Amino acid sequence: MDLSRLIVYYLDSLSGDWSKYPSMKKTVDAAIIKFRLKKKYRNRKDITWIRVQCPQQNNSVDCGFFVMRFMRDIIALNRIDIPKMYFEEYKSYSRAHLD
């Protein structure tokens, strides 16, 4: 999330769509608005959700790894913006990464 620019980056290793989970989006949007009100930010523009094309898991058990790996990649690359096509350096994960 980029709270100053009202951007939520959505990474889903199971190819989900945030619009299938309206309660999740509503909760995240409400939390961002509450945070900004508390900090007295004046910008009232809409929250932008960006779905990032990211490496995909091929089973239903590796999701924890993918979440941790996405966080590690974002921090390790020290990027403020997340590209819509994820990071060129990490287009996919090898079996060695997963093991």
Automatic annotation (TrEMBL):
InterPro entries, per database record: Papain-like_cys_pep_sf, Peptidase_C48_C
The residue ranges of the Ubiquitin-like protease family profile domain are 1-74
UniProt keywords (A-Z) are:
Hydrolase, Protease
Which GO MF terms are attached to this record? cysteine-type peptidase activity
- Taxonomic superkingdom: Eukaryota
The protein's matches in Pfam families, at most eight in alphabetical order, are given as: Peptidase_C48
Which BP terms does GO give this entry?
proteolysis
Tell whether Membrane is among the UniProt keywords: no
Q: Which family does it belong to?
A: Belongs to the peptidase C48 family.
Its name, as the record gives it, is Ubiquitin-like protease family profile domain-containing protein
Lineage per the UniProt record = Eukaryota, Viridiplantae, Streptophyta, Embryophyta, Tracheophyta
